[in-house]
Amino acid sequence: MITELAGFTKKRYNKLTLTKTWRDKLLKKNRQDIFIHTFSTFAMKFNWGYFDLYSSQATGTVGFAFSLFLLSKYGYNERPVSFYSEKYLRAFPSLIELFKDDPWVTDINRSFNSCYSIRTFDRFLDYFNLIKIKSDGGQYDDSKKVIKKSAIFDQIITFEN
């Protein structure tokens, strides 16, 4: 899906082929353009809700740059996922409302935090090797997860004052 959304590939007669523009970039090994285009497509065009069954389509994707900013500012030290989730919710308080009518949700705050954590950390920033995740619990036990930005984070993500 990402390759199609990014324009790397096109589908004709049910076959996926590489577009001429991106074939040339791949042959020239233009890795920076490929990374930037893949990253921005994933962040801004791809529906992160495809990864899970949460009813909120906006959680994580809305204000994704704010999450990057938080990591830029606080990510030098390991911090619990809840640290970032609480700051994100404070910045975008209306997003929690999207969980209120979901019949599967028993604890709104826990569902919101889990959704934000899975989408933002496990399935976005970790995919791009921008963070390191440690967990003493299971893969989806957010209460025991800590996040720290990776060694390459500051080389890729920068904010001007």
Name the descriptors:
161 residues, alpha+beta, 2 domains, two-stranded antiparallel ribbon, 7 helices, 5 strands, globular
Report on this structure:
The chain has 161 residues and is of the alpha+beta class. The protein has 2 domains: 2-44, no CATH class; 53-156. It is 44% helix and 12% strand. The protein has 7 helices and 5 strands, in the order H-E-E-H-H-H-E-H-H-E-E-H. A hairpin with a 2-residue loop joins strand 1 (9-12) and strand 2. Helix 5 (81-91) packs across helix 6. It is globular. The mean pLDDT is 87.
Total DSSP E strands: 5
Total number of helical segments? 7
Number of domains: 2
Which radius of gyration do the C-alpha atoms yield? 17 Å
Shape: globular
Which percent bin holds the helix content? 40-55%
> Which class of secondary structure composition applies to the elements?
alpha+beta
Secondary structure: elements and pairs:
Layout: H1 2-6, E1 9-12, E2 15-18, H2 20-27, H3 31-44, H4 64-74, E3 79-80, H5 81-91, H6 108-125, E4 131-135, E5 145-149, H7 153-156
Antiparallel strand pairs: 1-2, 3-5, 4-5
Helix pairs in contact: 5-6
